[in-house]
Amino acid sequence: MSDFTTWDIVRNLLLAARWTVLLSLVSFIGGSIVGALLLFIRTAKGRLGPAFVKAYVEVFQGTPLLMQLFLAFFGLGLFGIDVPAWLAAGLALILWSAAFLTEIWRGCVESVARGQWEASSSLGMGYVQQMRHVILPQALRVAIPPTVGFSVQVVKGTALTSIIGFVELSKAGTVVTNATFEPFKVYGLVALIYFCLCWPLSKSSQILERKLNVAHRNH
Amino acid sequence: MNYAFDYGWLFEYWPVLAKGLAVTVELTLVGGVLGVALGVACAWARALGPSWLRPFVAAYVELIRNTPFLIQLFFIFFGLPALGLRMGELEAANLAMVVNLGAYGCEIIRAGIQATPKGQFEAGASLGMSRIQTFWHVVLVPALQRIWPALSSQIVIVMLGSAAVSQIATEDLTFAANFIQSRTFRAFEAYFVSTLIYLALAIALRQLLRGVGWTIFPRRGAAR
């Protein structure tokens, strides 16, 4: 058996952390795209569309991410597709992030005063025009801090993909522990790396909240 | 797709699922109650506690909120024995949930406490209340009422997150699903059914917490 120095452990963990970062980016960007589409359906007129998105959000927020990962992993397999772990991981995380982002953004859209809808509609704007020129620019300001805050949940969520066999930071932690028999040190370092990824995001979310809230400071 | 779904065999395994469900419920109950208690203690420490204590609590909150639950669980179960702290998988799972909810609960409850106007403390003191009485009646209970919906959501999130405790062989609902999967090779059905159970559990828990809110804050609840 070879000896592992602390540097070997750190190097291996950092190499694996690249996949955590990549998967987080894919999930967050993909989730934003799907989430934006769902947001449009959710806030549009009509009954069926909003009800569908409501149910979608309920299901994805009311079940464990781990189960969603299992279902993506084994569910896609039923279609005769040979599912690599990264595909199931990416798909499940995108759908999961979309549910949360839609719900966050819906709150932001609803925070725009009702009169803005009426005013823009009295100008003869259609739904897409209203969203684009009137509602979204105002909602965006409110949406940025919680969106950045949610990115922390995405980074932490990627840890669960280790369970379906995607090799990222958490999985590397387990593998390195099995080789070194130093769980205290290894999991401590893994936690530290996650912290270094997440903490700047948390902090910037807080700072943005303070900065973008200038208009409402007296409340 | 040439796969024939078959849920009939699941009946054979219902005791396994029921036991898993019971463990998940138990973990949630213990984790929820102790986690909220820890959250209250930490919120008090951060908002009103002695100044030397505050940075420690702040560090705990930041550390937990910026690392995955799975790693906290692994650290407690696999890492702490290095310090001589050895515990069973149920204890480790519960500890991880309490520590996790405590940190999130602290931030939520603190937000509620800080929304209490300063004059309320003085008003409490002028009525001859002690510091503890003032904290309990004037600060904490109204604060909890204010943030109860947010706290409830967080408890549901921790319940759903508990699916990860199957990874240290705690025999919860996810463990039961894995067990059935390994026996029957019916992966999709096993996970689908347990996902539905989790969904029902989440909805029931949310209703229960709403009911608890109405019971704890009946007087103010009437005004809502």
TrEMBL record, chain A:
The keyword rRNA-binding does not apply. Residues 17-205 form the ABC transmembrane type-1 domain. Keywords: Cell membrane, Membrane, Transmembrane, Transmembrane helix, Transport. It comes from the Bacteria. PANTHER family: BLR6398 PROTEIN, MEMBRANE COMPONENT OF AMINO ACID ABC TRANSPORTER. It is a multi-pass membrane protein. GO terms for molecular function: transmembrane transporter activity. GO terms for biological process: amino acid transport. The chain crosses the membrane at residues 20-41, 85-105. Belongs to the binding-protein-dependent transport system permease family. HisMQ subfamily. This is Polar amino acid ABC transporter, inner membrane subunit. It is found in: Cell inner membrane; Cell membrane. Pfam families: BPD_transp_1. PROSITE patterns: ABC_TM1. GO terms for cellular component: ATP-binding cassette (ABC) transporter complex.
TrEMBL record, chain B:
One of its GO terms (biological process) is amino acid transport. Residues 21-209 form the ABC transmembrane type-1 domain. Keywords: Cell membrane, Membrane, Transmembrane, Transmembrane helix, Transport. It is a multi-pass membrane protein. Belongs to the binding-protein-dependent transport system permease family. HisMQ subfamily. PANTHER family: ABC TRANSPORTER PERMEASE PROTEIN, MEMBRANE COMPONENT OF AMINO ACID ABC TRANSPORTER. This is Polar amino acid ABC transporter, inner membrane subunit. It comes from Ancylobacter novellus (strain ATCC 8093 / DSM 506 / JCM 20403 / CCM 1077 / IAM 12100 / NBRC 12443 / NCIMB 10456) (Starkeya novella).
